[in-house]
Amino acid sequence: MKKKNLYLLVSVLAVIGSLVVVDLIVGKVGEIALKKMPDFAFTQVSKDNFRLNRVETDIVIIGSSRCTRHYVSSMLRDSINTFVSGDYSIFNCGVDGRTVNTNSCAAESIMDRYTPKLLIFDVSDAEFAAGPRMEEMESSALNYNDNKFVREYINDFGFKERVKIFSNMFRFNRRFAHIAQSFINETENTGYEPIYGGMTAEPETEPRAKTTTHKVDDYSRKVFTRVLETAKEKGVYIIVATSPRFRPTDNNPFLADLCHQYDIPYIEIYDLDIFNTHPEYFKDKSHLNDEGAHIYTDLFFQALKPYLEPLMQ
Amino acid sequence: MLFNSLEFLLFFPIVCIIYFLLGKNKYRNPFLLIASYYFYMNWKPVYAVLILTSTILTYGCGLLVEKYAGEKKKQKAFLTVSLVLNFGILFVFKYFNFINESVFGLLSSVGLRWNVPHLDVLLPVGISFYTFQAVGYSIDVYRGSIKAERNFLTYALFVSFFPQLVAGPIERAKNLLPQFHQEHSFNADDVIEGCKQMIWGFFMKLCVADVLSEYVDAVYNNVAQHNGASMAVATIFFAFQVYCDFAGYSNIAIGSARVMGYNLMQNFRQPYLSLSIKEFWRRWHISLSTWFMDYLYIPLGGNRVKYARHLLNLMITFLVSGLWHGANWTFVIWGALHGSYLVIENIIRKYVYSPKEDSFISRAFSTAVCFFFVCFAWIFFRANSIQDAFTVVRKIFTDWGPLFTQITVFLHGIAAILILVAKDIKDNFGLEIHLMHSKYYAVRLASVVFLISYILLFGALSSGAFIYFQF
Q: What is the pLDDT of residue B99?
């Protein structure tokens, strides 16, 4: 072999070897940082990590950014505790940018770890249309080695994602800044993240046409159904809810049917005059602001009351 | 196929291994041709027909033009047919709907009807690049500056060579075609240098361009919601995004060709360190600038005509360059702005003031002024519409407020920009600081490992296509 070719071969091996060492160091450092990360911080990484590995409250609310912005968890906790004369703890596990698939993974992890007294799953038919997206799992992927549900969900994305996740550097890609941010943003809370500011909109002059029907992705249907079945099996009291949008043009027949089929309470406060006539309760068409969230939480509690018997002490 | 995809990371080494195992050009060239078409057809297979059509047209034109050497009229006729058909394809797929909508808008405004239907076609990736490369070949043969290529497979490879097929550099036949006739034996130095250039290209694309794009998109796709401060920052970020997106692609293209022993032309040379707009265009997208100079600006008379005509030639060249970038009035305005900059710069240097002092402060000032005007033009290049562009300009100058921040983009993006600027300054001023090319093996190794680790840890790995694909 020519000297230069040998040099090339040695260099390639040296680069690969060094990368393996760096990768192992990154994995070790990353896992230590994850373990030391504060429980409560308004970052996606911290919340994903908390809901997958640490949440232990009696009542858990799970969902997307609409969940984390819509359920004033401390208010809901106080209302429930007063009503049932209990002392239940609560955490709003909603995370920005997470839809039904990622939330189902989190719900399965929670139910595998312990048995919450009440699990409120905020979801809408629209979330079933997009199908699984790896971007949503990027923070959860940090737990790939330790969490069998995360592993299973990511493996379902196929061989390519399995190969990528094999590298610690890929797994922790752009996550260290988020982890660091979690240490800075540490705060005591119950998971509700208010937003402020309101929209304006012209009054509705004609009846709104409900024209959008969402196609339900098979994978999303499968994983959500599995959550409902697991809840039944483990004796977790689960309630499915759909919180408001501003003047929606769709509705949620799939969820209504599915919950009916599994005999699970479904609270749909999706298209309500009180919200449709008050754009100032919304930050945008999908998210209530703090004022709207308080009104919604109260309405939700009123709708929840008939289902709270299992929590009576 | 995207360079920044797992598929390419498998495709490229496999192609290289087979390429070197094949040994002789009579096997290698057809293999590279198949690999190039496979590379392109991964996107939308049917559009390979367009490359093939362009290849056949310009190949035939080349042979006929050469056959009728001395008969200028016939040669001109063949060249005209080639140009009309090639630009015709480009027009249909890229400009038809734009012209149609513009005419519709114009006629509607005076109350006339225009009912030519919208063409429902996707813009074929890289069509402007391979069309210009093939057309350049036809003109070169017509001018007699090169001989027509007789081997169809070799010529087809020249048009479709995968490293530079979809976003350049737009190669000249004089440079690239002869390389397909040379035997390239395996050269470890070329492999190492090519890989280093590819790694730097990936860094530019994934760590700078794609990271910054998150902020730029958030602001520019929602101009009504953001203030002037955020828009100013987004515009500066876009300047680095578009540079790193395109120069990153060029580096990966040049590096991957180098691994196989081919030399492609340099496409960028630290453009933001230019002291003037004229210099900027000698450093930015060099293969396109020189194409326009050779095949448009000089045939129009260049600067060997009356002064007013010379300035008009500049404007025409940059208007066409703007239109080349995209079928939208925003690109035309972008081109017009650069044309105007050059015209004004030319007049100032001729009649008002020509800087002679070469102090650091005067150079730094010139660089900053040049960067400012380039950034101003980028507003029109990036904005989704002319209205949006004017909103951005208005807000930048009148509506400042708290900056919209995305902590991770700022941290990762600015860190990567600092690395980029440091390298550009080192290269531009020839500073004797070497990392990937250090004389010490450990430093070279550490630099390469650092860059790859940085890309894997901080790059936007699930990002999208290159900006220039759309052109």
A: 82
Q: Alpha carbon B135 to chain centroid distance?
A: 17
Which chain B residues touch A174 with a CB distance below 8 Å? 408, 412, 457-460
pLDDT in tens, A51-71: 998 899 999 999 999 999 999
Which residue of A29, A138, A169 is the best one to mutate when testing the B interface, meaning the one whose CB has the most B CBs within 10 A?
A: A169
Helix (H, G, I), strand (E, B) or coil at B356: coil
* Cβ A100 vs Cβ A217: under 8 Å: no
Q: How many Cβ atoms are within 10 Å of B303's Cβ, its own excluded? A: 13
**DSSP-derived secondary structure letter, B123:** P
Facing residues of A287 across strands?
A284
pLDDT in tens, A96-143: 989 999 999 999 999 999 999 999 999 999 999 988 888 888 888 888
d(CA B131, CA B59): 12
CA nearest to B211 within chain A? A174
H/E stretch holding A287 reads strand A287-288
In this prediction, residue B70 carries a pLDDT of 82
Backbone angles phi, psi at B152, to 5 degrees: -65, -40
How far is it, in rounded angstroms, from Cα B15 to Cα B28? Answer: 10
Quote the pLDDT of residue A189.
Answer: 79
Asked if this assembly's ipTM is beyond 0.85, the reply is no
The beta-carbon contacts of B214-221 under 8 Å, at least 24 apart in sequence, are B214/B406, B214/B409, B214/B460, B215/B406, B215/B409, B215/B410, B215/B413, B216/B241, B216/B382, B218/B404, B218/B406, B219/B404, B220/B382, B220/B383, B220/B384, B220/B388, B220/B392, B221/B384
Task: Tell which residue, B154, B187, B164, has the closest CA to residue B62.
Answer: B154
Closest CA to B75 of B31, B14, B138: B138
DSSP state of B147: P
CB A63 within 8 A of CB A103: yes
Alpha carbon distance A223, A215 (integer Å): 16
- For chains A and B, count residue pairs whose Cβ atoms are closer than 8 Å: 60
Task: Say how far apart CA A261 and CA B208 lie, in whole Å.
Answer: 50
Phi, psi of A189 (to 5 degrees): -165, 180
Residues in chain A within 8 Å Cβ distance of B445: 11, 14-15, 18
pLDDT at A313: 60
User: What pLDDT is stored for residue A1 in this prediction?
Assistant: 62
Count of other CB atoms within 10 angstroms of residue B358: 8
Q: What is the DSSP letter of A249?
A: S
* Interface membership of B460 toward A (CB under 8 Å): yes
- Tell me if the domain spanning A38-311 has CATH number 3.40.50.1110: yes
Mean pLDDT over A139-154 rounds to: 90
Whether B285 is a known active-site residue: answer no
List the end-to-end C-alpha distance of chain B, in Å, as a whole number.
Answer: 16
Residue B74 tokens, joined: 């016939």
In this complex, is the C-beta atom of B459 within 8 Å of any C-beta atom belonging to chain A? yes
To test the contact with chain A by mutation, choose from B456, B462, B463 the residue with the greatest count of A C-beta atoms within 10 A, namely B456
pLDDT, position B470: 59
CA distance B466 to B247: 10
Sign of CA dihedral B349, B353, B357, B358: negative
Spatial distance between the Cα atoms of B254 and B197, rounded to a whole number of angstroms: 8
Q: By the 8 A CB rule, do A231 and A261 touch?
A: no
